[in-house]
Each structure stands twice: as structure tokens, then as C-alpha cells.
């Protein structure tokens, strides 16, 4: 389709790596389809570099950058106010919740993983939901990871920040619950929601770690991980496929619905996380 529509892709708070992210590959594909692509990212220099590359590869000039720091809820609120004043359409929101497990804290004193991967996107999506409803049918695509299955949420310690891998797993499980609850709260309003595991991809997430770890992971990724172009296919599928629209609230792997572990399908937990998240972002 050559229909013009608006795609907002919200990247992680720290960096956007050109050529090596699933979402940048998705942005290229969707810009080539006629989307107005808005890249939301904290680092303006790297974002502009990404915008230039997306323009060249998609042969579209309808790509721009807006500043957004998902590790700062004041920035999220300011971004949404600015976006809603400037843009009259929002058809697809891609939440690239990809902050790796790091022992750090957001500006609002949440653990970096939970704060960026879940709360930042939670607030962003909620503030943009009215526009998504106005532009229905519209979609919210949230990137998660199959590692969600290795942890469960502890509502007594959502800010768990001791073991980086487990912290990351919990934030990915929160993404799964969040995506399901978006589908529930917008049911009948023309907004559909999907959680996507793009696969283990050769991305730039190791930039947050030591040189030795980066070198080791580069070898492992080269041997076992898939290129970002491959990982992007499921994101693109959920963004535009009519078939995907039949599975609102679904979890997708390899361009098809996939089964979740039973505990990750608990509607009561998803609703509780939503309510707790509302309180946390309001208090921050």
C-alpha cells in the first residue's frame, strides 16, 4: 500500500545504532511503504544519523527525529505534549523496549531495565492512546524477548536490580503483560496490540558493557544470532499484516502467533501491573 500513515518508533533511552537495530530495519521497510516515520531517541546526533540512513535506504524523505529519553518520565511527558501538538496522526507505535540488564537507575529512581523497558513505554503509550484511538484502526507493537520465561514478577520488588540478566527477564515479562493489557483496555476502540520476540539478533546492545565482553559477544552473535533484517520481519508483520490483526494481544515469533508460558497469560497479573504502573508514573 502507498497510503501515507504515521509510524512512531520509540527507541531505548541511551542510544540508537544505525544499521544494527531491529527497529531501524523496520523503519526502513515501513518508510518505503509510505509511512511518515518519526524516530524518538535521546541522542540527537545518533538519531539524525539513523534518520539519514533510513531516508537513503527507503528512498523516502518523510523521516524525522524527535527527542525522547525513556529514562526520564518528565521527558516522556514533554515529548508526548510536543508530538500531539505537531502530529495529527499516529497509526503505528513501535515500543522498542530493548534496554539490556545494567545495574543503573533512571532519573526517577527506578531500575534502568524496569524504568526504560516498561515504565517509560507504559507512560508513552498511555499518553498517546487518545490519538491512536482517533486514528483507528491503529496498532501498538512492543518488542519483548523469549527470556521472559525465566522470571516471574515480584510486586514487592518490581525494581529488582541485583542480577542484570534476571532484571532484564522481568522487564521483558512486563512487556508481555503490558501488551496484553493494552489490548484489553482498548478493546472495541480500534487499537490492537502485539508483543514481538524478534529472535536473537546481531544488534548493538553490548555497547553498555566492557570491551572484553563485547568482543566475546560479537563472536557468539556472529555464530548463532540472526541479522537484524531477519529479526525485523516479525515487527513489520505485526505493524501491517491483516492476518496479525486477528490476534489482538498476541505474542509473535517468526511472523506467527506463539504460545506463552501459562503464568505469562495471567490476566489478573497483567491488570495488577497496569494499575501499579499507573500509580508509579503518577508519583514520579
TrEMBL record:
Family annotation (Pfam families): adh_short
Organism of derivation: Gasterosteus aculeatus aculeatus (three-spined stickleback)
Keyword Cytoplasm: no
Family the UniProt entry places it in: Belongs to the short-chain dehydrogenases/reductases (SDR) family.
This protein's UniProt keywords: Oxidoreductase, Signal
Protein name: Uncharacterized protein
Highest taxon of source: Eukaryota
Signal peptide range in chain numbering: 1-18
Amino acid at each position: 500500500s502507498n497510503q501515507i500513515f504515521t509510524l512512531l518508533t520509540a527507541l531505548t533511552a541511551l542510544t540508537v545504532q544505525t544499521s544494527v537495530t531491529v527497529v531501524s530495519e523496520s523503519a526502513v521497510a515501513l518508510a518505503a511503504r509510505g509511512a511518515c516515520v518519526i524516530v524518538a531517541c535521546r541522542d540527537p546526533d545518533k538519531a539524525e544519523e539513523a534518520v539519514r540512513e533510513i531516508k537513503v535506504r527507503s528512498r523516502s524523505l518523510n523521516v524525522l527525529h524527535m527527542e525522547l529519553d525513556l529514562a526520564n518520565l518528565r521527558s516522556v511527558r514533554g515529548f508526548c505534549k510536543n508530538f500531539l501538538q505537531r502530529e495529527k496522526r499516529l497509526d503505528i507505535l513501535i515500543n522498542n523496549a530493548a534496554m539490556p540488564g545494567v545495574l543503573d537507575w533512571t532519573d526517577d529512581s527506578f531500575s534502568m531495565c524496569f524504568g526504560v523497558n516498561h515504565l517509560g513505554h507504559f507512560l508513552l503509550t498511555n499518553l498517546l492512546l487518545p490519538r491512536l484511538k482517533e486514528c483507528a484502526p491503529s496498532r501498538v507493537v512492543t518488542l519483548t524477548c523469549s527470556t521472559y520465561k525465566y522470571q516471574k514478577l515480584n510486586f514487592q520488588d518490581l525494581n529488582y536490580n541485583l542480577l542484570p540478566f534476571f532484571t532484564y527477564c522481568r522487564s521483558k515479562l512486563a512487556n508481555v503483560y503490558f501488551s496484553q493489557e493494552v489490548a484489553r483496555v482498548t478493546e472495541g476502540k480500534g487499537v490492537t496490540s502485539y508483543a514481538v520476540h524478534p529472535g536473537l539478533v546481531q544488534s548493538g546492545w553490548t555497547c553498555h558493557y566492557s570491551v572484553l565482553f563485547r568482543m566475546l559477544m560479537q563472536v557468539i552473535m556472529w555464530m548463532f544470532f540472526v541479522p537484524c533484517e531477519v529479526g525485523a520481519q516479525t515487527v513489520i508483520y505485526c505493524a501491517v499484516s491483516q492476518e496479525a490483526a486477528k490476534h489482538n494481544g498476541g505474542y509473535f515469533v517468526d511472523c506467527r502467533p506463539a504460545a506463552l508460558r501459562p503464568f505469562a497469560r495471567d490476566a489478573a497479573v497483567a491488570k495488577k501491573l497496569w494499575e501499579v504502573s499507573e500509580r508509579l508514573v503518577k508519583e514520579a
